[in-house]
Design a protein that fits this description.
Length: 142
C-alpha cells in the first residue's frame, strides 16, 4: 500500500503529474497513484470543496508522525510547507484549502481528526499530523 495525500479547494488548479516537471520544487499535483474511483470516494467522504487533487512531494504522500525517522519527517514537513506556499498564491485572504492523507483504499474510512491551521506559521516543533486527519489551512492577512 502507498500513502497518498489529497488537497481540496474551491479554485481550479493547473495539474502537473509525473510526466510533467514538478511544480514548486518537487510538488506533483494531479493523478499519480489513485484511480478515478478512489478520487471520487475521497472527495465525497472527506472534502467540502469543489475541486480535489492528488498531491505528492518527492513521489510520496505527506504526514508528520513520531514513527517516521527524522529525515522522512523533515521531508514531509518541507513538502507540506511547499504545498502551503503554492496554495497561498491561489487563495485570497479568508479562503482555505483542505489537506487529507490516507493509505490507498482507505479513502472512505472515518476521519481520526479535523483541525484548522493558518497557511503561514502552521508548524510547531514535534507536531503530529497523521493520516486520516483533515487539515483546513486558512489564508489570513500577513
Amino acid at each position: 500500500m502507498s500513502l497518498i495525500s489529497y488537497i481540496g479547494c474551491n479554485v481550479k488548479l493547473p495539474e502537473k503529474g509525473y510526466e510533467d516537471n514538478p511544480i514548486d520544487g518537487g510538488i506533483f499535483l494531479g493523478p499519480t497513484y489513485a484511480d478515478v474511483d478512489e478520487k471520487a470516494e475521497v472527495k465525497e467522504a472527506q472534502f467540502s470543496t469543489e475541486y480535489v487533487y492528488e498531491v505528492t512531494f518527492d513521489s510520496w504522500g505527506m504526514e508528520l508522525t513520531p514513527y517516521q525517522d527524522k529525515d522522512t519527517y523533515e521531508k514531509s514537513k518541507l513538502g507540506l510547507e511547499k504545498v502551503c506556499d503554492m496554495m497561498e498564491t491561489y487563495l485570497s485572504v479568508g479562503d482555505y484549502f483542505e489537506f487529507y492523507t490516507c493509505w490507498i483504499g482507505d479513502e472512505y474510512n472515518p476521519r481520526e481528526a479535523d483541525i484548522t491551521l493558518t497557511i503561514r506559521g502552521w508548524y510547531t516543533e514535534g507536531m503530529e499530523l497523521r493520516e486520516q486527519t483533515l487539515i483546513r489551512f486558512v489564508k489570513s492577512e500577513s
